[in-house]
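Q: Joint fold for the lines below.
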Amino acid sequence: MNKINILIADDHKLIRETWSYILNSDPRFQVIAECGDAQEAVELAKTKRPHVVLMDINMAPFSGLEATQRIRKISPGSKVIGVSMHSQPAYAKKMLQMGARGYVTKNSSKEEMIKAILEVNHGNKYICDEIKNIISEQLLDEKEDSPNINALTEREMQIINYIKEGLSSKEIAAGLSISLKTVEVHRHNILKKLKLKNSASLVNFINTNATYI
Amino acid sequence: MNKINILIADDHKLIRETWSYILNSDPRFQVIAECGDAQEAVELAKTKRPHVVLMDINMAPFSGLEATQRIRKISPGSKVIGVSMHSQPAYAKKMLQMGARGYVTKNSSKEEMIKAILEVNHGNKYICDEIKNIISEQLLDEKEDSPNINALTEREMQIINYIKEGLSSKEIAAGLSISLKTVEVHRHNILKKLKLKNSASLVNFINTNATYI
DNA sequence: GTTTAATTAGGTATAAACACTTATTGGCAA
DNA sequence: TTGCCAATAAGTGTTTATACCTAATTAAAC
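A: Joint structure:
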């Protein structure tokens, strides 16, 4: 039986090395490449055609989410597993939307990671226990009136990023070549959707609630 | 020659396991305990008396900074190495202030980690190359007028926390039983000190710049 | 004991943000 | 095709924030 070929994309060198070490110690796996940025990950997926890609979400120059999406198109046979330190289900959800076949947090054990690799390689989907537990807990809470950042549109997120950087509505309007009035409407809608009072609390919400990625 | 006894404290199980695996594979090291929270780390340092402690900064219920401080008192023979994903020198500085003997980012290689352990066990201090490079770069830039959050006063930090929560100046004034005008002056001084344009960018700065820990 | 810095607070402006209404366009889906 | 929604943009207000100024009090530092 052939080994499962794995590509590791993670911007932390130590983490890449340790995973390579562990996975290569198992006769079922073969780490064929590793890299620290998303661009390289896409290129390596194209040339090396790995069976499984371990993809960290946080990477330069674009996120693991985008890299997953690209790999999905460029090498449909490669199964991507999202790996992140974030336990929020929203991350997992987004990652799966982008075409990932699995999601594992860095809280997971070695055994769970191996299980995830075997499952996705076999064509199944896999989500780690931690996320599954959190999701079920959230379902029990069931707070439908909670601010849901997923309701924000692309444009709104774009404008939030400008706001974070300290740009005024006038500057944002100039930057996006749209009317000042439009920017104001967007800002108003954002605050209304998230039930926030002003831009300061918005930035704090965005920075501390990772739910939006 | 005796092995160097190591305690690993990191809230990510996978990371603990991989380090244990790697370090135990080296005849010079012996991982004698590992844990995922700061409280346990302090207790384990007390009972196990490890030669070296690998301490992650981000942990519950209190931070690795505080745990380091406690271990320093409770088991002065144990050398603590701060391990973090943060490349800001401010983290390293704070960690060393708390009594750590070394600081290594998660971008560092396995070799660098081993070097750090050997150095601190030998009684020396060790800071990883990444941080050293950043510090030297910052010295070369030498911008004395650069935003320094350390210059913020207690009162100013207090007001920033209210701003983050979305309170208006009027509300902050009421909360602190001071004049609206005073709050406005504080806000103005904060923005001036940090060279920021508005509250949104202030909140983003505070959330993303860990310099104030 | 004099200086320095933090906190306090007033005045006087302009600029920006926020609230709410209406309305047009284009795309996508039931 | 009809209807919904995102994105666009205008009008018209009110409220807040920001930018300057001056200045008193107090505590710490030199």
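Q: Anything notable?
A: Residues 139-147 of chain B have pLDDT under 50 and may be disordered. Chain B touches chain A through 33 residues (CB under 8 Å).
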